[in-house]
């Protein structure tokens, strides 16, 4: 359907035409999803714009216009932006317009706190990826401090970020992603959102427990527990580009770069696919 779009087809520049098709395809899929789910649909912003604040904002406005054409209102939408400083700044500016943003690739407390200060609607932390990095690397102060306390570094980051958001009244909701097992979910009970893989949901479904045990799990994260959490003066800084860069350890730097590479490769694969089947027979 995107390739048959009459606004994209006449564009002479092949790159602009392809970008137009990709945007239209994303919105077509997002529009179909909006018919299926009662909540919000998150649409990915091209990761190649991760270090271009104004480029991100322009792309989001382009996507919003396309959603408006198919009658999907802004309140049903989130726009997924990488948590570079430029992405966080784009989130701040978009949220000031009432446009909801979803900041992803958060692997450090500094990123999470800066995203909350920017007013991002959703902040996404990949629990399992942080754990995987810690198993084969060393030298990240934030991760090593968690391990010394006997904590899983991914779960510890979600806990700390949740407590920061809720203790200081930020509007952001925290999303835990890349959970690997049932215990991860039990350890994060109370977090705003969890992305649970099908195999984890299946293992929960297959668990054989008595009703008393089944409903006895304690909520680990709550506004009440957040109120009791103490932060250092350094953690309560007003984050800017320089302080964020200096506070991001090797884990968040490497994992952010790897995440961006993966998203860029996926975007290129979509473009290559659309390019191969352009023009479709009916155009």
The level-1 CATH class: Alpha Beta
CATH topology: TIM Barrel
Shape: globular
Record field, number of beta strands:
6
Order of helices and strands: HEHEHEHEHHHEHEHHHHH
What's the pLDDT, averaged over the residues? Answer: 94
- Alpha-beta content class: alpha/beta
What does the largest sheet look like?
A: 6 strands, parallel
Percent of residues in beta strands: 5-15%
- State the domain count: 1
Number of discrete helical segments: 13
What does this structure look like?
One of its GO terms (biological process) is carbohydrate metabolic process. Pfam families: TAL_FSA. This is Transaldolase. InterPro entries: Aldolase_TIM, TAL/FSA. The protein has a single domain (14-275), classed as Aldolase class I (TIM Barrel, Alpha-Beta Barrel), CATH 3.20.20. The protein is 54% helix and 10% strand. The protein has helices at 14-36, 53-69, 85-96, 109-118, 127-136, 141-148, 153-167, 182-187, 198-206, 211-214, 223-227, 241-247, 250-276; strands spanning 41-44, 77-82, 101-106, 122-126, 173-177, 193-194. Strands 1-2-3-4-5-6 form a six-stranded parallel β-sheet. Helix 2 links the parallel strand 1 and strand 2. The N and C termini lie close together (11 Å).
Short summary:
With 283 residues, this protein is of the alpha/beta class.
Which secondary structure elements does this structure contain, and how are they paired or packed?
Blueprint: H1 14-36, E1 41-44, H2 53-69, E2 77-82, H3 85-96, E3 101-106, H4 109-118, E4 122-126, H5 127-136, H6 141-148, H7 153-167, E5 173-177, H8 182-187, E6 193-194, H9 198-206, H10 211-214, H11 223-227, H12 241-247, H13 250-276
Parallel strand pairs: 1-2, 2-3, 3-4, 4-5, 5-6
Helix pairs in contact: 1-2, 1-13, 2-3, 3-4, 4-7, 5-7
Protein name: Transaldolase
Organism: Gossypium armourianum
InterPro entries: Aldolase_TIM, TAL/FSA
């Amino acid at each position: 359907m995107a390739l048959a779009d009459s606004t994209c087809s006449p564009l002479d520049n092949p790159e602009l035409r392809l970008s137009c098709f990709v945007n239209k395809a994303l919105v077509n899929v997002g529009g179909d999803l909006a018919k299926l789910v009662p909540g919000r649909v998150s649409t990915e912003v091209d990761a190649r714009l991760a270090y271009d604040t104004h480029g991100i904002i322009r792309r989001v406005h382009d996507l919003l216009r396309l959603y408006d054409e198919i009658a999907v209102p802004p309140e049903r939408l989130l726009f997924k932006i990488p948590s570079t400083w430029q992405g966080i700044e784009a989130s701040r500016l978009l949220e000031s317009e009432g446009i909801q943003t979803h900041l992803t690739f958060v692997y450090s407390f500094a990123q999470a706190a800066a995203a909350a200060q920017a007013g991002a609607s959703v902040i996404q932390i990949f629990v399992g990826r942080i754990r995987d990095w810690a198993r084969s690397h060393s030298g990240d102060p934030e991760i090593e401090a968690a391990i010394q306390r006997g904590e899983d570094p991914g779960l510890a980051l979600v806990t700390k970020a949740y407590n920061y958001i809720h203790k200081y009244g930020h509007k952001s909701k925290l999303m835990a992603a890349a959970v690997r097992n049932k215990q991860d979910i039990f350890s994060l009970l109370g977090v705003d959102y969890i992305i649970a893989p099908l195999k984890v949901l299946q293992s929960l479904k297959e668990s054989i427990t008595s009703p008393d045990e089944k409903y006895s799990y304690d909520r680990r994260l709550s506004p009440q527990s957040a109120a009791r959490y103490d932060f250092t003066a350094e953690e309560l800084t007003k984050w800017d580009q320089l302080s964020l860069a200096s506070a991001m350890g090797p884990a968040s730097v490497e994992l952010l770069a790897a995440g961006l590479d993966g998203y860029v490769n996926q975007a290129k694969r979509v473009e290559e696919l659309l390019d191969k089947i352009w023009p479709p027979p009916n155009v």
